[in-house]
Task: inverse folding
């Protein structure tokens, strides 16, 4: 993955997925992929740096609250990572995965891994979008049992903030539906 270069990523705040897809299509940015579907209002784009820089002001003019370039070395979770997945394939194909002890949700599908597809899904996660929002929604909806306690491990609180935003958006949607 470190060999993939020539691209980058930008976080788009304040545009829903359908509107963002429409704007990219209308503006002719077929080179940009939705790489991380983090929250209903935070989506990360991946692709050529020049196109990310050109798209930023257009998306802000169309209503995005912010478009920020991310300090990353490549266009991760996009079609541009497919060569990395291909290079990793022999290693993954030769790996024997132990039976899963508990459900683990795949980023690429927002569904639990199926034992026979672990390797395939691991490779997909390299060049497919991270469906963080859908993953969290399915957990919050109780699809895998009672809602767990979430603990973020590491030095930051980015995931905790995204979970808080997803919960807030869900409460707003439920409140709006109840008011009808």
Result:
């Amino acid at each position: 993955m470190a060999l993939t270069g020539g691209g980058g990523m930008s976080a788009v705040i304040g545009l829903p997925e359908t509107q963002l897809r429409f704007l990219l299509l209308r503006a002719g940015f077929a080179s940009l992929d939705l790489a991380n579907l983090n929250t209903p209002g935070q989506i990360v784009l991946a692709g050529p740096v020049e196109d990310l820089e050109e798209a930023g002001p257009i998306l802000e003019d169309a209503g995005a609250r912010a478009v920020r370039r991310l300090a990353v070395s490549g266009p991760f979770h996009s079609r541009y990572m497919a060569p990395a997945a291909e290079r990793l394939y022999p290693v993954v194909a030769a790996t024997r995965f132990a039976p899963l002890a508990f459900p683990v949700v795949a980023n690429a599908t927002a569904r639990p891994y199926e034992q026979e597809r672990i390797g395939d899904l691991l490779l997909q996660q390299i060049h497919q979008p991270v469906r963080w929002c859908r993953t969290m929604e399915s957990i919050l909806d109780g699809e895998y049992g009672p809602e767990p306690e979430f603990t973020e491990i590491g030095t930051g609180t980015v995931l905790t903030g995204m979970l808080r935003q997803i919960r807030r958006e869900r409460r707003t949607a439920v409140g709006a539906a109840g008011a009808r």
User: Anything to note?
Assistant: Helices lie at 17-26, 49-61, 82-93, 118-127, 132-140, 158-178. The longest strand covers residues 7-13. The mean pLDDT is 92. The longest helix spans residues 158-178.
